[in-house]
Each structure stands twice: as structure tokens, then as C-alpha cells.
Amino acid sequence: MATSKDRSAGILLYRWGQSSLEVFIGHMGGPFWARKQDGAWSIPKGLVEGAEDLLDTAIREFEEEIGVAAPEIDYRLLGDFRYSSGKVVTIFVGESDLEVDEVHSEPITVEWPRGTGRMHTFPEIDEVRWVPLDEARSKLVKGQVPALSELESIA
């Protein structure tokens, strides 16, 4: 079983757009991701703290990463998705038309440039948007892409 340091939980919101299923995703902040689009987006998610309930983690992390509360809707467990690193992300889904005008993400501190010893603070997520499912397949980090097929099969 995954430990808390390699177990995360998140929320994948979806809605029906004019011609396709759309998902709500966020672009990762900081200089490493600044000029990247493909593989540089993520669902709002984060580490499970201790014995915290997985849905509670997902709801807390949504607010920390986006700066607004997760919509008060019914969430369903989509499943566990394992990254190549071994990290497991438990994803919950819900249908919503959430609109976010401005992201107010919790900051993260990282060494930048790598190897310099200089620490800088950046927003964890710097942009959010609704994207069609097919576009999300190229934008999401590789470990989250299988969640899109699972969502498509149940939505």
C-alpha cells in the first residue's frame, strides 16, 4: 500500500461543452513549467496527510491549489492511478460548471535554477481552464492521462 508521501488525492471536474466532454485542469506554476504546455497541466490534487480521508484530501487540495472551494456536488470515486514513479493518485469526479476568474494557489518553494542553492517561491498552479477531453490528453502529466479514458467510459 502507498504511504502518505506517495499517495495523493484530487478532483477531476467535468462538464458537457458545446461539442464534447470538457475537464477542468490547472497549469503547474514555476519556471520549469513556464514555457511548457504538453504534459504541464494537472488536476487539482495533493498529498494525503496522515490518516486523512481521501475525499477530504481532494477537497482540501482543490481549495489550496485553486484558491476557491471545491464545488458542493456529489463526487464519485474514479479510481487509483499509478505514476511511473510509484506514486498513487486517487481521483474523484464530479459534474460542475465552476468558473474561476483568478487562481490564488498556495505557494511552493523550490531551488531555482536547480543546483544553485537559491530558493524561490512560485504559485503551485498559475492558470486553470476547461479543455476538451482530447486536448487534455496531451496537456495532462502522463500519470493522469488514464483517468480521462476512465472518465469517458462513465460520463
Structure description:
This protein has 155 residues and is of the alpha+beta class. The chain has one domain: Alpha-Beta Complex (Nucleoside Triphosphate Pyrophosphohydrolase). Helices cover 19% and strands 36% of the residues. It is built from 3 helices and 9 strands; from the N terminus they run ββββαβββββαα. The strands form 2 sheets. Strands 1, 2, 3, 4, 5, 6 and 9 form a 7-stranded mixed beta sheet that branches. A two-stranded antiparallel ribbon has the order 7-8. The longest helix is centred in the middle third of the chain and has 13 residues, at 54-66. It is globular. The chain starts with 6 loop residues before the first strand and ends with a helix.
Q: Give the radius of gyration.
A: 15 Å
Spell the H/E element sequence: EEEEHEEEEEHH
Major sheet: 7 strands, mixed
The count of domains is 1
Give average pLDDT, whole number.
92
Write the SSE topology.
Blueprint: E1 7-16, E2 21-28, E3 41-42, E4 45-47, H1 54-66, E5 76-82, E6 88-95, E7 107-111, E8 119-123, E9 125-132, H2 133-139, H3 145-154
Task: Briefly say what this structure is.
The protein is α+β, with helices and mostly antiparallel strands and 155 residues long.
Properties at a glance:
155 residues, alpha+beta, Nucleoside Triphosphate Pyrophosphohydrolase, two-stranded antiparallel ribbon, 3 helices, 36% strand, globular
